[in-house]
Amino acid sequence: xxxxxxxxxxxxxxxxxxxxxxxxxxxxxxxxxxxxxxxxxxxxxxxxxxxxxxxxxxxxxxxxxxxxxxxxxxxxxxxxxxxxxxxxxxxxxxxxxxxxxxxxxxxxxxxxxxxxxxxxx
Length: 121
Description:
By secondary structure, this protein is mainly α. The chain contains five helices and no strands.
């Protein structure tokens, strides 16, 4: 079901990207053993949950996401939630790290641009 409030869904995505960034600040790779994302179960669980919420918010945006930001791979954003839920025992950490480091900043920018378009009417 599509949302009746796309501004809220875009903001949900932005907020969860910001939460992931905040969770990752607590890791100190190289300084402390067990402090990579893969080694820290608590932070990994929190990041996975945020990624699931991002995926769900994108799903609820339905077609409006493509209308506002047609060049963004919304299908992939929606799909990561299914991967995390149904293939949880086979996480590909290098892919998750690429998503976090590369895809989330681009998604955050796309959502900010979409919000601006919505607010301008």
